[in-house]
Amino acid sequence: xxxxxxxxxxxxxxxxxxxxxxxxxxIEDLTTHPATKGIIESTARAYDASNDPETATIxxxxxxxxxxxxxxxxxxxxxxxxxxxxxxxxxxxxRNTGTCTGATCVGxxxxxxxxxxxxxxDKDLGTNYQERLKNWLLKSQENGWAVAGAxxxxxxxxxxxxxxxxxPDSNVRVKxxxxxxxxxxxxxxxxxxxxxxxxxxxxxxxxYKDPDADYAVAFVxxxxxxxxxxxxxxxxxxxxxxxxxxxxxxxxxxxxxYLIFEDVFVPNERVFMCRENKxxxxxxxxxxxxxxxxxGACVAGQGDIMxxxxxxxxxxxxxxxxxxxxxxxxxxINNETTYCMGIGAMACGYKHPSGIWISNSKLAHANKVHxxxxxxxxxxxxxxxxxxxxxxxxxxxxxxxxxxxxxxxxMKAVKASVNYSAETRARAARLSEWLTVGAGIPGxxxxxxxxxxxxxxxxxxxxIEEFAKQAAKLCGxxxxxxxxxxxxx
Amino acid sequence: xxxxxxxxxxxxxxxxxxxxxxxxxxIEDLTTHPATKGIIESTARAYDASNDPETATIxxxxxxxxxxxxxxxxxxxxxxxxxxxxxxxxxxxxRNTGTCTGATCVGxxxxxxxxxxxxxxDKDLGTNYQERLKNWLLKSQENGWAVAGAxxxxxxxxxxxxxxxxxPDSNVRVKxxxxxxxxxxxxxxxxxxxxxxxxxxxxxxxxYKDPDADYAVAFVxxxxxxxxxxxxxxxxxxxxxxxxxxxxxxxxxxxxxYLIFEDVFVPNERVFMCRENKxxxxxxxxxxxxxxxxxGACVAGQGDIMxxxxxxxxxxxxxxxxxxxxxxxxxxINNETTYCMGIGAMACGYKHPSGIWISNSKLAHANKVHxxxxxxxxxxxxxxxxxxxxxxxxxxxxxxxxxxxxxxxxMKAVKASVNYSAETRARAARLSEWLTVGAGIPGxxxxxxxxxxxxxxxxxxxxIEEFAKQAAKLCGxxxxxxxxxxxxx
Amino acid sequence: xxxxxxxxxxxxxxxxxxxxxxxxxxIEDLTTHPATKGIIESTARAYDASNDPETATIxxxxxxxxxxxxxxxxxxxxxxxxxxxxxxxxxxxxRNTGTCTGATCVGxxxxxxxxxxxxxxDKDLGTNYQERLKNWLLKSQENGWAVAGAxxxxxxxxxxxxxxxxxPDSNVRVKxxxxxxxxxxxxxxxxxxxxxxxxxxxxxxxxYKDPDADYAVAFVxxxxxxxxxxxxxxxxxxxxxxxxxxxxxxxxxxxxxYLIFEDVFVPNERVFMCRENKxxxxxxxxxxxxxxxxxGACVAGQGDIMxxxxxxxxxxxxxxxxxxxxxxxxxxINNETTYCMGIGAMACGYKHPSGIWISNSKLAHANKVHxxxxxxxxxxxxxxxxxxxxxxxxxxxxxxxxxxxxxxxxMKAVKASVNYSAETRARAARLSEWLTVGAGIPGxxxxxxxxxxxxxxxxxxxxIEEFAKQAAKLCGxxxxxxxxxxxxx
Amino acid sequence: xxxxxxxxxxxxxxxxxxxxxxxxxxIEDLTTHPATKGIIESTARAYDASNDPETATIxxxxxxxxxxxxxxxxxxxxxxxxxxxxxxxxxxxxRNTGTCTGATCVGxxxxxxxxxxxxxxDKDLGTNYQERLKNWLLKSQENGWAVAGAxxxxxxxxxxxxxxxxxPDSNVRVKxxxxxxxxxxxxxxxxxxxxxxxxxxxxxxxxYKDPDADYAVAFVxxxxxxxxxxxxxxxxxxxxxxxxxxxxxxxxxxxxxYLIFEDVFVPNERVFMCRENKxxxxxxxxxxxxxxxxxGACVAGQGDIMxxxxxxxxxxxxxxxxxxxxxxxxxxINNETTYCMGIGAMACGYKHPSGIWISNSKLAHANKVHxxxxxxxxxxxxxxxxxxxxxxxxxxxxxxxxxxxxxxxxMKAVKASVNYSAETRARAARLSEWLTVGAGIPGxxxxxxxxxxxxxxxxxxxxIEEFAKQAAKLCGxxxxxxxxxxxxx
Lengths: 489, 489, 489, 489
Description:
By secondary structure, chain A is α+β, with helices and mostly antiparallel strands. Chain A has helices at about 5-15, 35-50, 55-60, 80-95, 105-125, 130-145, 280-290, 295-315, 325-345, 360-370, 375-385, 390, 400, 405-415, 420-435, 450-460, 465-475, and strands at about 20, 25, 60, 70, 145-150, 175-180, 180-190, 200, 215-220, 230, 255-265, 270-275, 350, 355-360.
């Protein structure tokens, strides 16, 4: 029963109450509405792949809690193999859908991170958070839920802490603690995968000091819980999802939303942290290490598709791919770099006493800088190979190409290779556009935090004084060379 | 009379017959239709600036033919100062409109290039092409026309020459020569500025050998000439131009189109080359040198606006720009590089016997490679400073932000800096998105030819054998070191 | 007895007959001669570290053959942990000596690679090569030998195979097979660590076809075997090793040599491949995968020292390192990239049936491209922080700085920070020069093969047709898009 | 008489008293001593080229003061053509000698800069500095002097101003003003071209405030003036200049020195600034603009030779250059970028009221950042094409290659291409090594100031507030978006 099929999944999404808005409209059926059916299709393909013998090992595993087969995204990652499998699932899914795995990504990481942090809290404070988490996890595994996760708050003024900023609800917080649960309010922003998820796992958005203790809160809720309003964001060329024809490029999709919590009641069994702000630093450290290590697999998977799209474009233009090998090799190196550094960060990680595998933070953050830069080169190369029609999408619309009067003229005009139809060229061009400047752009630069934040983690973990001492020893310096005292002003 | 005002310009556009299609619709009034009014607004601002004492020197000059004041884009460029003024006009216009100067760009270059090439043809062949061009030029200067230019053909199969490819009309060609003029057919693709132009100047798209002599043709036509069908292309997020509110970011715009010529008659006085394929190489050489030199000013101007947008985003987020200085300096260096190398290519140019200034081809093409790469870094930095909401535009829509029920909640949620409104942040975010992954992306990588083509020109102009000889002399090699003979297979 | 101390090691080197030349001189005692004592000091420090409790786990392990403690570089690497330990030993040694681990690097890899290849040969051909190797390995472990390795041949004309090239001895080959052993001749070029080694492990330099079967040969010899002449190569500023004072920067060093074999007899028990050219491809594949994965740790270790040297220079100049953090972070990211991708390549490897761990070839080769490029940026940053005196070493000589007449004036002139002596600044400057443009430059770009060779391996392992198919599926292309047939000429 | 020949030049150098030290030795005859004859040969070749009809227009011009023919490096640069000719002379000289034009570079710039600054001082203060400069210039033109220039002081602690630092003579200063002249002391560091110069032109090293007025001093002295001690610096592999054979690669050279002034008396007619610290900012501004614009031509010229060396190496290895075209094109683009941006900076300059042409400062400094980075890529590519033997110079020494016993074996071993001798390969390899990690490395990153200094000039000249305003206008922001006030602490 734990390996769910597409139809069961779609049914579970349809069963929830409408609370997702887009363009001023409350969406009735997410699975059929043009704005959301793409992201649900992307997620549904993961359920398909779980049931396909060829890909089942990528998408499923055995529960360490029950010994039952489960979807990978419902599992605890307790070994290097487990977490490498996370990367491989992400890369596979990107290739399989062209998009990120929103509804099976952050939530998966969140439950693992909280498995470790609840272990620490329970040990130090005598709480029973891990038990609660375990119970929820069993239910999640049994139902094969897609679980989105939310870390980033709307924040308010970036130069202030949550409790200082104008609007106390710019960040999600505990408003009230009741005997049977907590009441939360506030906004999580740019949250991915929500429309395709059964549940949403909320983590604190930063490491908090005592004055911000109310913001130290972790819990999980059904997507359609009372008091939660969800508003979908725009993305480039998003209106094409409402159009007919090939201009939208693909049937899949991804999306991000704002989660507006207004006095939402969360029962205790779904609360895994409540004002223990001392542990929020741990949440952030574990989360970012285990998020930024496999995120390189996502951009690698997208890069694989960009290689494929480049090959299609060259050939649709009437050319061989051979003269483009140098560029394709560079694209491949970029893909393998972010993928492989992520694996390296995992291999240099360690097993947390709770049993969870934690990646090496410094290496995961060094990789994040590549994730924030290399895909830009890969996209540029994809556009360079594809030519002007993919650089800016300057190609006639589906409506014009299929118009009774001007369509036939246009189709004749845009046909290039003698071997392939104009439609094939149009589709390849729209795919390339979609990948590089369209709705297919993943938010990898800032997703899971900014590259400057990553650079700071690298800085903090680079022992420059030790390196200076070793350098001094090598060249025979006997003075102790320290930084000059700051000048008095 | 030669310095035209906005209203006269708009009137002249409105006076032409409808022949521009978009999304299956033949547009009645280009100046008011959402799909085209942006590009016309961009062009109208150049007319405004011509009449503004502060910017008149940038946008106007004195005709060397008549001594009258004229718009710069109607002038012959006969000195280094003249052609530097082309760069400065382009950079100014980009800052002024956020977009490229389509309707005053390629046409301007085309008339200069043909001034030189007609001089050569007339001298060699006894034709009177330059006289025809001069007469048209006088009219163009008098009417202050906006003149688009078209070089790139639809091409067909890239591995074949125009006469070999399936469809003889994949490239524009002379179908018939009559006593009073010529009949042309064929398609020019991805042509910029057409909807905002009075006239369109057609050049041959490549250097042609004898079998392709029919494709050696240059002429100028009114935009609405009989037999010409124009179809506008898509660009990222183009549908937003049909929306209300700030999601479309700006009121200006640019666009590219397909020009479908079907048995169009062009009278002799508007024909400047007809089957003299020997001279098409000159057209390409002069055109690319003088096009790729100032194109660096366009991307510099866009980069200037990206710096501005980054500053706005940082502050709208509640931050100072100071921590971002390193990134902004890099953006500025990128901008100045493409601008300044263009100027350097001009300064290393020469005065053609016809009086036209020709930029240095090797240097202009070296610059083209930067134009095709550096703006990608500038965009990335703009997104890095702006944060996740500009990377993918994941920010709620105008419709949601202004919706009676969810709007107020959302506006409160997205407000960041205590000093600035949520609307200011939304507008800055949409501008940054528009510039980096939206309709504001200029086609600079492939515009005017591919970077690989540019690399080949650099290669052809780098005297590697001479460098090898000098190196050999320096290190005392006395053997003559030549490339090995190719192996027999 | 298997963990050897510095003195035993030095004694073993001194015990061998002189056969190493430098600058036209046959060196009597390698351990004291200025040209070779540096590399021997580097190696001796590895023996020191093996005996230091703090570093023993890095430098020693337990023999899987005997259960005895051994130096790591005498071990078989049979698990991911084992091979990660190779990377960590390399990075540690670089930090500890400033130089590469020549005499404990390629030989270590060679014995592992041949463990796998002899397993395959024995299985397929019924030979007993692995038994021979095991017997030698037991002796090597017992004696704690430093074993250099040699792959690269002198090659001759790069466009020809070994048997085609003018001089049959441009590559090492079997000249004669005798009952008790083989006679070999030929030249291995640019071989590292030889002067500090007890033994030299020879591998075939490429994958050979049948006509080159004589070149398919693997064996191990003592460094001072009869018939072997060794000539040391130059490196930048190598003459400083013959000078007094701090201009040579460090007491350690590395070196490469030419090995000239002239009718050298190798007894059968030291021969592990003899004309089985079918298996040379395996040697190359396993060798490069396991060599290019950990080589990233070497350049990372050198980069760590460059960070240290940069810190020293900034402070010796009177500055804080704070304004240089951005540059130092970039250096650190470069270091971690090559290190971590190497680990990732290992973690994506597999256990060979012989028990040896083989790294992932594609990922190891993608890393090689970074190894060939990123250190150049790291060096540039080191020079940028250090200032002009490290960029080109333009700083007075030790002789001038300590000259009775001009020395005192100069020392006063070059003193910068009020806190540190002129000598400290001189030493830091010379270290930085040595690391970036001096004798400390490691040969990482071409060491173990060229980056273009690595790119070809990446190309061969990137399934671009599969990516194209997946891309076509995503965008709904139904035609089978293949490369056009080459044109007939 | 003003166009001097090699012999006259050498005679003039020999006529001066010895005051140059190297390696603890006071050099008697600079023109024959191994440490200095290379740089003098480089300079002598400029005199040769001045007398060669083929290159005379590059190296000579007409004096605007006398109408007589003069060496270019003795001229005032009063037009765009004049200053472009500076760039072209530099690029030619680099190709002609492989080295920088030390003795005809900074001094040339210095006299031009001081022509402008003395004009301003005379106008404001009623001094007669320009008259003095003119008289010296007439003499310099008549004698065809090589004039080195010195800006950079030894500085002392970088965090202090000259008058604050421990040693008041860390920077050159006026110690005493006498009726007939001034007495100066202090140290200029890393000064190029001095050993090959007749005269040395001293400029203030920075913009000084009133407390540092003594350091505001400009003057010119013969190289051998009493009280001046000159100590040559080291450079990579400098000892090879003392060796026989091809290991030193070339017969030319460059060098930098420390100038130690101890109570040197300078007569008034050679003093062009004395304590007018208000004008030191102008000196720096004009100097850096006109120095950093043409410096791109120097690295371009070196890059041209690197292309040549790469071609030689490929062929000496037995290969065609064709597979390396991509790399060579990138090298060429790098060369043309620094050259062409320099020309662009000049073309965007202006004519100073004194008649001197001043380059655009912002653009010249943007170019400086490329000068500090692009050559590193060019060098890397040169090493990538050349192979391992040029990466680190790991190739046997001349002494070994020509040794009676081992030489013949080695020569046979290192021969590669069947078409070229081993010696040709050795020479090409040593040239490549010399260019990339040997004595031929020019100090372009820090020469004339650091890249971070250049970045600050770019920052200061980038109107980010104006760009922000324009961006705000484009997207309809009506609030005035300014930086937040710094937080109180």
